[in-house]
Every structure is written in C-alpha cells, then in structure tokens.
Amino acid sequence: MEEIIIDQEGYFKMTALSKKSGSSKPGTRLRKRTALVLSLLLAATHVPVTGGAWTTQVSAQSTLVNQLEEKSHWAAPVLQKWHNEGLLTGYPDGSLRPDQVITRAELVKLLHTMFGFNEQGSASFHDVKAEQWFAAAVSAVEAAGYVRGYPDGSFRPSQAVTREQAAHVLAGLFSLNATADTSLTGYKDAGDVSKYAQESTAKLAASGILQGYPDGTLRPRTPLTRAELVSLLERLAPRMMKQGETLTGETVKGNLLVRAAGAVIRNTIVNGNVFLAAGIGEGDASLEQTTVKGTLFVHGGGSNSIYLADSSVEELQLNKQEGPVRIVISGASEIGRVDVQTPAVIEVEEGASIEVIHIHSGAAGTTITGKGQIREITNEGDEVTLNGKTLGRGKTEPVGGVAPQTPGGTPQTPAAPGSGGGTPQIPSVPNPGSGNPQPEPGDESDWTLVWSDEFDGTGSNLDVNGVNLDLWDYQLGTGAEYGLDGWGNNEQQYYRAENAKVENGSLIIEARNDGYGGKPYTSSRLYTQPTFTKKYGRFEARMKLPVGSGFWPAFWMMPADNRYGGWAASGEIDIMEARGRLPGEVGGTIHYGESWPLNRSTGAEYHFPEGTDISDFHTYAVEWEPGVLRWYVDGELYQELTNWDSWGKNMPAKYAFPAPFDQEFYLILNLAVGGNYDGGRNPDASLLPSTMEVDYVRVYELTGRPYNTPVEPQVLAEPLPEGAKEAVNGNYVHDMLYEQPIKEVAADGEALSPDYWNFVHISTFGGNGTAAVELLDGIPFAKLGITAAGNAAHAVQLIQHVSLGKGRWYKLSFDAKAGADRTMAVKLGGGADRGWGAYSRTLEAQLSPELQRYELVFQMEKETDLNARLEFNAGLNMSSVWIGNVKLEESNAPALYPDEPKPPVNDNYIYNGTFDLGRIDRMTFWHLMTDGAAATAAVDPAARELKAAITDGGASETAVKLVQPGVRLVGGSSYKLSFDARADQERTIQAALWNKEGTVIYAAPQAIELTEQMEIKTVTFEMQAPSDEEGQLVFLLGGRAGDVYLDNVSLTREGNSANELSLDEQFPLKNGSFSRGTANWSEHVQGRWDGWDQQTRYSVEDGELKFHISSAGNQPWDVMLMQTDFPLRSGSTYVVSMDARSTMDRPVELVIETGQQRYLEETVQLTDSMQHFSFELPVNDDLEVSFRLLMGKLAGLQSGSHDIYVDNIRVEQKGARDQAFLAVNGDFSDGLTGWGTHLQGQYDGPSSASFQEDAGEARVSINHAGINPWDIILMQTNKSLKQGQTYLVSFKARSTSPRAIEAVIDNHEYTRFLNETIDLTSEMQIFSFEVTLESDQNAGLKFLMGAAPGIGADRHDIYIDDVQMELKGAREAISGATVAP
C-alpha cells in the first residue's frame, strides 16, 4: 500500500506504506493506483488527513426515510441506498445530519465498514478511549497499518476534511484518468484551488464525480459534508458486493468494489476497475467469463484463492498485506499485465495466458506454476520460483517453462501525431496530452509549429542520403574526436553518414555489422547544433525502434553551450531512450548537478499497453517550460519534473533555478550499439542490420498562454514509515565502533549486510583489499588496506545501509586519514533498484596522513529509501584509508546564504556578481536599502543584470544603497572593483568600502559616471584601516530617480591573492630539504656571544641538517635554527611541518612569530627515531614571519652533549604541494601505492599483463598486448590541473623488447593534453615533456602499454621509474634557487 501525507499547508505526499506488523520488505515501491481507496487517507505523521465516518445506529429505518423525504434532500436516493446496504447509519437521536461536515472519526468508521478491515489492536492514541463509538474502527484501521496520528500521540477525531483534500486523495486512489483540461475555468473560484489539488480536482470535476454549487462555485476549501462524501464514493464505486453475493450478466459502468468473501462475478463487463478489498480476508472470490477493462486490484484472499476463469483483465495488481494470496488463472483467460507487489501463489493453467508478470522486491517467495503461456517475467524479488526453478533477481526473461507466447503484432500503419496507430498526417499543433497540476498543458491551440522535418524529400540543401543539411548535420566517428571514445558510454559503433537515408517519407538510421574505424558496428547520429537551437517549447518525434539486445535508440537534447560547466552541470534532456532488449518500455531522464563524476539524474519509464511496443510507431514528446518538464508517449503524460539544480566549479552557491534548463539546447537522433545503458550488451549478428525509423521531428512554441513562471523547488519532509532503520542516540549509522564483523562482499550480486558495515570490492571494477579494525587514540577505526586500486572510485567501498526520509535534512560526519595524500569520494545514494541514483552531493574528502573531521549536510530530495547506501568510495588509489566516528544525524535546514565573512572564490571577494546564483530572484548575497527614498531591485532572468528602479532618490546618495556584506578586507591592501553599469539616462553613482555597521568608511566613495550604454567601470580602493572580515561593498545610488543597471561585479585584491598566490608565496620557506646546504638558514648559539660555548654548530650531512649541541644553555632560545622574514598571506592556511630526531630524548619548540607575537608554538618530543610533526596555521592578516626551532634549555631536558637531525622543514600553503607535485610515489619506494592499473582483458579482449614493484621500479609483465593501446594502463588519475599553468612530466623507462608506448594526460572525456608516443629500448632512458593547460581540468597521467605498431606477440617486460608530474617552477620556488614567477 501507499500512504498519503498532508503537511500543514495541505500538501499531499505518497510514500510506501507497510503494515504495523508483517511489513513488506524495505525499498518496495508501489504505483499510486495500487492503493485502496481511503485506507491511505489517514496515514500521516505530519498533519494527518482530516476525515470521518458514521457514528452509532438509528433505531429504525423509517426514521431516516421520513427525514429524507420531509427535507427532500438532494442526496436522498444515494443516502437511502447506502443505508439499505448497511453502510450508512445515523445518530442516537434518529437524525442523519447529511449536511454536517465529516470528521476523522466518522471517516474511519465508514472505511472500516466499507472495506472490512478485520485486524484488531488496541488504539494507541491518548484521545481515543476504548468506550468511544469509533474506538474499534480506529483500532482496526491502525492495526491494518493505514492510520497514524500526530507527533503528540493524538488522533484528533473531530477534525474535518475539505472538498479539495478529498478530491486529491480520491482521484489518485481510484486511478482516475488524467484530463487534458485542468484549468477549472467553468468555476468562478477556480483560483482558490490549492496548487497541489488542481489536477486532482479537475479530474473529478471533468468526470462529473465532483460537482459544483448552483452559483457556479466549487468551494474547494469548504469542509466536506457527510452527504457530499457519500455521493463522491457512490460515483467512484457505483456497484458494491457484500459477502456471498453473485453478480451475473451485468454491465458495470464504473468501478466495482467487492467488500467480503464468497463473491462471484459471472458473465459481466466492468468498464472501470475492480477492487477485491481486504474484507475478503482469507476467503475467496471468483471471476467467470468476465471482462475487466480497467485494473483488478487484489487486497484480500488467501489459500482459498482468487479464481479467474475464461476472463479478460487488462491489468492485475496483487498487494495483500497479510500472508500470500493464491491466484488461479484458468480456461481461456487473458491477462495483460500482472503486478506482484506482495508474496503470491500464481497458477496459470493450460489455455490461459499472461503478457507480462512484474514481481517487485516486496514479493519475495512468490511462486508461479502451471502450463499456461507467459510472454515475459521481470523479477526483482528474492526466492521467486517458476515451476520449481529459482528465478534470478533483477532478470527479465521470456518464459519457456510456462509455455511462452510468440511475440506477435505486425508493424502497424504509422499513427497520427500523439497516437500509436493510423495514417500519418501533418498537424499544425501536437496533442499536448493529459492534464497536469503545474501548469496545465492547455489546449492544442496553445502550441504553434516553428520547426520541423517531415522527411518528405523537400528542401534546397539535401545531401546524397536525402538528409536536409539546412536542418541537420552529422556527428561522425567514435567520439574520440571529442575526447570521448565510445561517446563516454562504451558504445561500440562508428557513426557514419552512409548509415542514414531519407526514403518513403521517413528518416532511416541503420545499424550494421560492418566494423569500421576500430569499432565492430556502424550507425548514424544526426544533430542540430550547427543549424537549430531552442530554449523552451514542445519537442516531439514519431518513430519506430529496433527490438533486440544491444540496440540503444535515442531522441535527446544537449546544451548549445556549456554555460554552467562540463557534463552534466549544463544539463541533458533525454526525451526518449530505449533498450531494444526491453521493447515494452522507454525512458525519459534529465541529467544535472555538478560536472562528472558528481553529476546526478532523475527519470522515469513508460510501459506500453498490451499489444504494442517500441517496434510500432509512437510519438515521443517533451514539453519544456521554465521550471517544469513533462514527458509524453502518444499524448499520455507519464512524468513531470520540477526539481533539479546546477553547480559550477568552486562556486559559493548553485546557479539560480531553473538552471541548467534555462538555456538553448539542440536535438539529437541516434541509434547506438552496445554501451552502458543496457549493461554493455551487444546484439546477436542475426539481428543486424536493424533500423530506427523516424516519421517526423517537430518543435512547437507556446503561444496560446504564457510560459510557466518557475518557483523555487521545495521538498517537504515526510515521516519515516514502519520498518525504517532507527537512530541510536540520534545516529542512523549502526555499529559506529565496529563491534560487529565487517562483511566482505566480493561477488557481484552478493547481498550486503542490511544492518552493519560491508567491505565491498567487486571484481568487475578491479578493486581489492582488506578491512580490519584498528585503534587510533583508543578509538576503533576501520582500516581499508587497498591492494588493487581498480578502475573506478567505487572499486573499493565501505558501505552501510541507512534509512533516509524524503524531504528530511541530514548531516554526515566522520573522521578519516590516509597513508598518503589522496581523495575519497563519499556520498549517499540508492542501490540497483533505484538506478544507483545519488541522494547527496559527493564529498571529495581530501585525506592526508593527519586525522581530520569531515561533514556533509544534505536534503533527501528523492523518494524515501529505507535501504539507502552510505558509501565511502576508496578506489583509484592504493593508499590505505582509516574511517571512524561515523555519524548520520537529522539536521535542521541550514541557512544557505548567511551574511557572514566570505572567503574569496577564484580571487573574487564578491559573491554572485553575475546575478545568476542562489535563490530564484538572483539577488542572493545582495541587499537593497533605502533611507527616505523609494526603490526596488530585481534581476531579469534573461538579461541577468541587476536593475535598481528608483522612483524617489531621497535627499542624498546614501538614501539608496546596494550592499554586499561579509567582504574580507585586509589592512594596507589595494583592491580593484570592476563592474558593468548603465542607466536610463546619464547620471553619477558612487562606490565605497564600509565596515559592517556602516559607521566607518574604509575607502572614500568614488564617483562613477554612467551613460545609457553598458560600459566596464573600474575603481581602485586603498584599505588603510586594520583588517576587517565583515566589511561591506556599497554602491550609493540615491539622490535622484531613475533606473540603474549593474552586472559582472568583482573585487580583487591587487598584488596578493588569498587563493592564487605566486609559487614563491605558496612555498615561502626555502630550502627546507637542505638540498642547497644551509642556504636561506641561520643559527643562533647564545654561548658564542657569552663565551661559554664554542662547540655547538650546524652542518648538512647526507641531506639532513645536523645540529651538534654541546650545551643547551639556560633558555629555550639559547640554541636556535632560523629562517626569517618570509611572507604569509591573509586568507590562507599554512602547513608547518618537519622531520626530526635526536641522539638523546628531549623536547624542542617549534615557533612561527613576527617578533611581537607568536602565531604558532608547539613543543614536541624527539627520540632517536625520525618522526614527522605537522601543524596547521590559519592566517587572517598579511604577515612577515620567522620560523624558529628552539633547541636550548626546555623543561625536562637532561644535560649532556647530543645531536639533533632535522629534514623536510616546510611552511607552505595548505594543498599547494598537492597542486604543484601531482605524481604520488613516483619512485615506487612504496610499491604501487598511489598507482592505478587497467587491464581490458579482465572484461573483454585478449590483453594479459601483471603489475608489480621490482627493486624500486614498476614492472609491467605483458603476456599479450591486446587490441588497443589503452588495453594495458599504469596510471594516476584525479589530478587537478589549472588553466594557464605549465606542467613538467618526466620519467625513466625501458623494455626488454623494443617497442613504443604512449604517455598521455587526459580528462574523463578522454581529451588529451599530453599525447606522446615514445620508443623504448633495453636501456633505461629519461623522457621529459611540458604541457600548458588552456582551461582547468581534472585529468590523469597514463602510460598506455597495450597494442602498438610493430609490436610482436612475444612476452616482454616494461620498467618505469622516477615519475614526476609537477608545476613548472615549483621545485625552484621550494629550494629558493630562483624566485618562481
């Protein structure tokens, strides 16, 4: 079942509902129309649905009859009928009160009577007493799992339900068809219908079920009366059957409700749905020679069975909550689709047939037997059997044991637009499909055709294939031309123009088994980027698609420009894509979020009705409006999306909604072969050639009404259903201390522990390792020892299942470290049944050997998932990882854009200076303030420039101010303000820097002259005051009326950037490795000055600094190692570290100071073993500091001569070394730690090799080089390369047999920035190259050692050593040999 939840604004949500006891397995996802009428109406833990049912009985029927006759009540016939059937009783005083509003208690009583809930429990609500007339009903409905109360433990039985609330619930629960017109224009108060209820109310109104008042009003928020509720239910279920009743030879116009056991439906036609209610219990019900044109819902029945004999049912849904139900299908019965949502016993006798059986995960243990015909079974459940044979979970297979049907159906005549059959015609407008809540799609006349290709051979620029090159162009090749071999999806075709042709009024794209260009198949791909792009509209195509494993036809859209970043930050709209292996369905999806691999997606599937599939002509369409996307098949709406986001790299906020779907996109038609969409399957040779046939492609503009006005997406919190994993002391992560064994999962398909930790390394991804528990400072941590890094971040994982509720905010926190600097991707998402979708953004945790705390705050925007996955993804790197103190706690929604100090982003101290970030108003981080003036500020979503409309400028410039607070200002610095500006007429504005309160002017206002033309303005400020982290940038716009426009505002600190310091500033301490002896260093020995020590001295020996101390003196500073007067820059965090040992155990003190103040002072204890010490130093002001190592007399020091050895002293900007020296373990002194490998032969092809460390070198032993250069790879990936920077790559290499290898730097799209082929001999050679980046990239260094020209089949070894990949000038900056630019 499902439940309906209403929040305090009356907003309805639907979530999976399990019963209080014996609940279905977590993760079961049920379709809305499986729910039984109003059992759902009461399931809520926020503000429950209001409602009611009847109370105690009237003494005599005549009382009611007389009352109705005397009052001539409009509902008298219906009320009398319900009274006669025992469903309706009155009050103790003999009254009926038909016009009294329904209460929750009354509705529960009516539902109990109507549906026969037969479970009994004890009502747990403090305001429901056992002696009250509704207590038994509340108890029964609660025990059945369909009702919950308020958080305070109350039921509130006297609360009422409104007309629109009832309409919304009933429309969904009785599976009413959508209506094309949801405007409700026939009612005077249509605008009063709440947004959530518009479509539902329109459905009931359009079908005549919900009727208005004589004055032409609907009164949606008026409480529902008793008579109105009965009338609604009568129209929804005009025929009801009681226990033992037989129905023969009737035609039921609407729905049929079977309330109790023993019912027989014989020789009957039901034009609506049939509901076999829970009141049947463990009894039986029979359908004989009966046709059900809707859906047969089975919620009751047991071992005594539900019998279908010689009957026809379009769809059968099984969802019985207590124990399995037995379904016997016999005679010549024909069932279109069987949806099994709870355990069942299905017997298909000889002569009976079923097109499709879909077994959901909650139907574990279902058995199917018999000799009938079943065309296809899709199984998502465990322990499901077919004639005694276990069916694999998640497999879809044609059934041969229960005699399979031959897929029938000859190709139909091409259909008219918006439908599946008929003769093709060219309409002026599309069929917009069914109605929608926001906004209504409208009439056909709303849409006007603006672009089309009818593929009729017309046009002045046709190529030899008949393709109109004024409308289309070809995208040719393998994708490698774009740096995406396999088009980023492992596709196996080469796209050629020769595979497309226009003939007989259609575009034919043909996939062939005639390998070309290194790919085994060819096909074609057409796109409109060079010819046509559009923002918003209706996009549709009518086409028929190939059937068979390995075919991937698609009709989709991509952004004309990557305005918001690389895929998928700038979006992708998949109008239709299909798997030829699954011809009964197509999918529609959007991709959005951040650039890969942090992208996300949302989508749904459309299932074709019986008798047709993708091999027939169908019309696929998307209606795209600001803030809403709708998907249609043959005019039927099957998905609407209104929630997505887009994040740019290093941006302080998301792009304003509806980004990224607020820009020009272009169309694509293609037929791919193979690829990841269907698990890398390739077609059987017998299926080729195969074609995708397109009748037309059309694009429409919305002209009949305005486009939708987008609103900020909101996801309201829903309660966690029964069966959710409970928090322990507020933590949804169990076994935080690793007291339970960590389950190792290495086999694909092996179940994870549902409650505790799992160490996952599936062989598919090439990862391997061990998981153990290790104490760090007495606290248990999971240590992941990684022996194979694999080919993906998820190649090595630590996973625990957690329960996440839709709309709830969560905070994940944990401690972690690594054996060496590395990243670890942490996220929460769904499993296979949720398409592996992401629920949170991915936290790219930058790990180091030092233990750090990490946090991730997110909102669960997808549907509630009781089996969500908390994943620590540690693949792609062999450095060990420690993880501990993991907590997942519910959190309050964070303040997204507070007015607080903001660090500069990309060297800009102003946030949202382009007015396209944050809230939908695009004013995030800015404030317009007036004092004795009148003005407003707004950002047009198209122009994306701020407009200050000043109607009264006040008395002075300060009367209207545009302010951005939280600007970090550093004393003594110069700032350059740059912005674009214009005005509706020539005028002057001013700009200034103030303190937070506006009482101190740091930089005097400067006048800027504006004209009517947008011009770039620049102003320089001198910050003479002390630093202030909460300064303000202020534009003074007052003094006169008019309109002022601003855009592209930036404030940069001249000379010194807090984020992009020069290399010399990133590594301010020089020669810390003493590679240049004692250059840049000095020492202080007080005894030399005082005459009592002439022996203490320092020198460099074997690359270490040795300080021989004859006497420590009397003070800590009597013996010091120093480097003085180097800069630290405001806004940066520095890492101060060193390696040190002493021949005598002793303390030393490490200090960073200016002479007047110490900013870091740490005392550390040295032993005779070399130790590493590291500390972090945040800096808020520009400083000139000195490093001092105090080795004089410290507390605890014993007297005596001794030596101190120091090495690798560092004071450097945090993260700078990782950015400057990207190769990890390039000398292989730590084995293959930090290196990843790829061997294509593990998946397909003949390549065979092994990777190992041999005497400090990497040795790759190649048995077979494979087919492609990339079949064998040694690599380091996820390296952040910066625009404009030059990188040096050098290494040593040799081979036991002469051959070539490739040294490559490329990104995830396989765009190469370094592409060198080098020839190896048996002698070790040094190779070096330079590469300069034109844009920021996340890339990797790879050695491609697979197939190469001239390579023989002999086994050989390749040796690689001393790999360096570093920023040019960084080594010199660190050593101090030169000053880096």
Protein model, in words:
- InterPro entries: Beta-glucanase-like, CenC_carb-bd, ConA-like_dom_sf, Galactose-bd-like_sf, Glycosyl_Hydrlase_16, SLH_dom.
- Residues 62-120, 121-184, 185-247 form the SLH domain.
- Residues 426-437 have a biased composition (Polar residues).
- Residues 370-448 are annotated as: Disordered.
- The protein is mostly beta strands and 1381 residues long.
- The protein folds into seven domains: 2-234, no CATH class; 240-397, no CATH class; 447-702, Jelly Rolls (Sandwich), CATH 2.60.120.200; 743-890, Galactose-binding domain-like (Jelly Rolls, Sandwich); 927-1044, Sandwich (Jelly Rolls); 1063-1213, Galactose-binding domain-like (Jelly Rolls, Sandwich), CATH 2.60.120; 1220-1375, Galactose-binding domain-like (Jelly Rolls, Sandwich), CATH 2.60.120.
- The protein contains eleven helices and 80 strands.
- The strands form 14 sheets. Strands 3, 5, 6, 8, 9, 11, 13, 15, 17, 19 and 22 form an eleven-stranded mixed sheet that branches.
- Helix 1 (61-71) runs antiparallel to helix 2 and helix 3 crosses helix 4 (135-143).
- The longest helix has 12 residues, at 104-115.
- It is globular, with a radius of gyration of 36 Å.
Question: Top keywords for this entry?
Answer:
single chain, 1381 residues, Jelly Rolls, 7 domains, 11-stranded mixed sheet, 80 strands, 7% helix, globular, disordered N terminus
